[in-house]
Amino acid sequence: MLSDPLKSPQATREPGTIGSPAPGPPVSAAAPADLRVQLGPQRLHIRWQDGTQSELPLALLRRHCPCAACRTEREAQSATALPVLKKDPSADIRVTGAQLVGRYALQLTWSDGHDTGIFPFTLLRTLCER
Ligand SMILES: [Zn+2]
Questions:
Q1: Which of 57, 38, 50 is nearest to 96 (CA)?
Q2: CB contact at 8 A, 128 and 56
Q3: Could you write out the DSSP letters of every residue in 32-91?
Q4: How far, in Å, is the centroid of ligand 1 from the Cα of 22?
């Protein structure tokens, strides 16, 4: 269900849901009070410090992956005359694991082996408010 806290990289190999409530005092208003990655429906549930609850499709996160490789790829795509011919890379790529990076970010591992995307909570909050 939704109750397994994410404590180790091994936990990311388990199917189902990875939950990772952030312990301790909040570092900023953008820090989630609770963060859960659902691997089944591929969604990220966030409860923020201010009580706001958000839900993001993980595919959306892949499209906004902040790592250098993905940014470069997106910039190349936007400069392409016929971007519709390029297959959406997020369509059949799933999240297989997740872990917290310090107190400021979430790192996702994808089924294609991509794991360099680190999503700061501020970026997650921005995506939630779009
Ligand atoms: Zn990336």
A1: 38
A2: yes
A3: EEEEEEETTTTEEEEEETTS-EEEEEHHHHHHT--SHHHHHHHHHHHT-S-GGGS--TTT
A4: 24
CA 75 / ligand 1 centre spacing (Å): 13
Q: Which residues contact 71 (CB under 8 A, 6 or more apart)?
A: 65
Domains, the chain, ordered by start: 15-128 (3.30.2020.30)
Q: What is the C-alpha to C-alpha distance for residues 89 and 93, in angstroms, rounded to an integer?
A: 7
Residues with CB under 5 A from ligand 1 (ion): 65, 67, 70, 117
Q: What is the distance between the alpha carbons of residues 28 and 9, in angstroms, rounded to a whole number? A: 25
pTM, to two decimals: 0.69
Q: Each residue of 30-83: pLDDT tens digit?
A: 789 999 999 999 999 999 999 999 999 999 999 999 999 999 988 888 776 665
